[in-house]
Design a protein that fits this description.
single chain; alpha/beta; six-stranded mixed beta sheet; 9 helices; 6 strands; about 40% helix; globular
Amino acid sequence: MTSPWPSHLWLVRHGQSAGNVARDRAHAAGLGEIDLDIRDVDVPLSDLGHAQSKALGQWFTTLPDDERPTVVLTSTYLRARQTATAIVEAGGLGKTDLGFCVDERLREREFGILDRLTTQGIEARHPEQAEARRRLGKFYHRPPGGESWCDVILRLRAALDTLSLHHRDQRVLIVGHQVVVLCLRYLLEGLTETEILAIDAEGDVANCGVTTYVRNGEGGLTLDLYNFVAPLEVQGAPVTSAPDAKVAAR
């Protein structure tokens, strides 16, 4: 029976972004709001994020030609597109007939009224949302104007259908965001809410951390690596894992 899946699949979180840096500053100062007046979709990589993305691209050059990505799919968000572009350029992938596609279904989870607020800010300005999140859990809680993890999973189901329809037998690299990586694991491995939240609780997905699946003998995908950061360490690029800042227009 023909498998509907790619032969290899890499899931990569974007490199460190300016939003990550601004969020760290806000938390360190005990502020309720992140000082970054820009749409989330337009948040760029930091200098370190560019270095991390280049380091990951250089790691791909160490793979044989027949083991490198043939298709790159990326979130529409600037930090993800910059990461994908740097990987392609540093990895010499553009020298081949590489498919490159920007897909809005791979975008970051939308935070709605909680945009640009730290945990302290949410507790102070929207205590009812903080309580709802505690009661429902992050998997199901949907802030007004935003998305729950389930909402992200719904659009990722459609993205996986496209993956199977157009990219079967290919070697596919997906560049997205922390929640996108986790929700894809939930779908690809048939995990439960409890199982995926336990993985999330173990630690953040590192910037430019690599999660890899390979096709097994039954035609399905088997997890090979999760949150693999050796490519950064080999190239001397610092490993960072701050969650994406909740940033958007005022």
